[in-house]
Amino acid sequence: MKVNGYQLREGIKRWLLQRDAASSAFKDSLFSFNDEDKSTPDKVMLEFDKADHNLARLEEIQQCYNRIVLCNVMSKQITLALCVKLVGGAGRREKMWREAAVGKKDRFSYREEASRERDSSKEYAKRVLSVKDCSDASQAAAKYASALRNAIARGNATEVEVANLVITDDECNVLFD
After folding, report:
1. Are 8 and 152 in contact (CB under 8 A)?
2. Tens-digit pLDDT profile for residues 3-41
3. Burial grade of 15 (CB within 10 A; 0-12, 13-18, 19 or more)
4. Helix %, strand %, coil % of the chain (to 5)
5. Distance between CA atoms of 104 and 98, rounded to whole angstroms?
6. CA–CA dist 50, 136 (Å, integer)
7. 118: helix, coil or strand?
8. Does the CA dihedral 32-34-37-43 come out positive or negative?
9. For residue 156, what is the enclosing H or E element?
10. Burial tier of 150 (Cβ tally within 10 Å: 0-12, 13-18, 19+)
11. Radius of gyration, alpha carbons of the chain
């Protein structure tokens, strides 16, 4: 049997929903009117424990999967785990360079230059890098961030034998069905 990253993600969502449902049902199960037919707190806690354990197990399997799957990012081969960790910073880097290239107006000022002037002599700060240099860096950062996002999508489509993830077929049926 094989699984891919998308199956892992969906399994995690499903068990997270079941755990959250049991968590919210627990408080409601503590009190009951005579005419109500509710689950008891210990039964609800068993559902919570099962969902919480299965969620943790799927997250553990996802970590193994992310270390096994290799992705190509701009002619370099790295693990999916590293791609996932790098993509956030790559997006932030892209945003910083983009703002450096086009500027970002201060919401309290009509002029962007107001933050770069000295009151006494009206001396203005000069750009350290040209708009073109910032724009080029922004484009390179965008290309890198895009390559990581693409690699993550392709990596998550990779099917891996469950035996390589230290999971049995029976456990796989419980976690994914």
Report:
1. no
2. 999 999 999 999 999 999 999 999 999 999 989 888 999
3. buried
4. 65, 10, 25
5. 9
6. 52
7. strand
8. positive
9. helix 131-156
10. middle
11. 26
Alpha carbon distance 166, 153 (integer Å): 23
Q: Model confidence at 63, in pLDDT bands (50, 70, 90)?
A: very high
3-state SS class at 130: coil
DSSP 3-state of 76 = strand
Residue matched to tokens 């419980």: 174
pLDDT digits (tens, 9 = 90+) for 102-124: 876 666 655 555 555 656 667 77
**CA 172 to CA 161: how far, in whole Å?**
11
Q: How is residue 109 written in tokens?
A: 């000022």
Which among 104, 95, 69 has a CA at the least distance from the CA of 84?
69
Q: CB under 8 Å to 105, separation ≥6 — which residues?
A: 112
State the pairing for strand pair 123-124/160-161: unpaired
> Which tokens go with 105?
């107006």
Tell me the two tokens of residue 87.
């993509």
Other beta carbons within 10 angstroms of residue 83's beta carbon come to 26
